[in-house]
Amino acid sequence: MLTEIDAVCVDFYNTLVFHREGIGRGRALIEYLEAHGFAHAPWEHQVLYDVFDQHDAKYSPHGSPGDRDAYYAYLADRVFERLEIPRSDGDARRHAAGLWRILGPDAFDVFTDVRGTLSALRAHGYPIAIVSNWQRGLRHYCTELRLSDHLNHVVASGDVGMAKPGPGIFLEACARLATRPGRVLHVGDSFAEDYRGGKAAGLQVVLLQTDPGPPPADVPMIRRLAELLPLLGVR
């Protein structure tokens, strides 16, 4: 059982949510573009950060249908521009809904035990922060995936300009939680980014390993997020 834990941090992708098609947004986006005959510049993960660089400021899940449609068209235009796609007038607007389904929160599902686990942790008095290498506006994804009510803070690399495994993003989460790192537990699925990064920043860490292989030696590990509850004495 873990002791002297006052707050919990969790990774987002492959810890709380998973890609519905199991291929990731980048590959899904390229397959969509090529299926529609669009030539494009080479893919790199930075594309997502560039495309979503205004997501937190320009988008609201609570906006009117017209406002959201206008944003989807804006985002589609950003995709075409960033990937250097030759296009005709109206292409971005025609493909706005399709690209949003690929890039937006509908591309993800929440693991079945996540909401119940987060709810139990909050009920037991643990404040919770997401710590994720993600683009701007991750808080909007959490709202639309019905996770926000279970969270105190969302700390994304695109918003704070720091990324795992560097210590800064972990320490930023600890500061928002008003808890010193040694009393914060971090849970994530990446050995390099979550386990090593969290440990280096002084947090306690449990690795969430969903594949069937053996874990690295001497690494605390769970297979499902719900397995965290008995480790913290939460019923």
What do you see in this structure?
By secondary structure, this protein is of the alpha/beta class. The chain has 2 domains: 7-16 and 111-231, HAD superfamily/HAD-like (Rossmann fold), CATH 3.40.50; 25-106, no CATH class. 41% of the residues lie in helices and 13% in strands. The chain has helices at 25-35, 46-51, 55-58, 65-82, 91-94, 96-103, 114-123, 138-144, 157-160, 167-177, 191-200, 228-231; strands spanning 7-10, 17-19, 108-110, 128-132, 153-156, 184-188, 204-208, 221-222. The strands form 2 sheets. A 6-stranded parallel sheet has the order 5-4-1-6-7-8, sandwiched between helices. A two-stranded antiparallel ribbon has the order 2-3. Helix 1 packs antiparallel against helix 6 and helix 4 crosses helix 6 (96-103). The chain starts with 6 loop residues before the first strand and ends with a helix. The model has no long low-confidence stretch (mean pLDDT 96).
Biggest sheet: strands side by side, in what order? 5-4-1-6-7-8
Q: Work out the count of structural domains.
A: 2
SS elements, strand count: 8
Average pLDDT number: 96
Please work out how many helical segments DSSP would assign.
12
| CATH structural class of the largest domain | Alpha Beta
Produce a short descriptive summary.
The protein has 235 residues and is of the alpha/beta class. 41% of the residues lie in helices and 13% in strands.
Which helices and strands occur, and which strands form pairs?
Elements: E1 7-10, E2 17-19, H1 25-35, H2 46-51, H3 55-58, H4 65-82, H5 91-94, H6 96-103, E3 108-110, H7 114-123, E4 128-132, H8 138-144, E5 153-156, H9 157-160, H10 167-177, E6 184-188, H11 191-200, E7 204-208, E8 221-222, H12 228-231
Parallel strand pairs: 1-4, 1-6, 4-5, 6-7, 7-8
Antiparallel strand pairs: 2-3
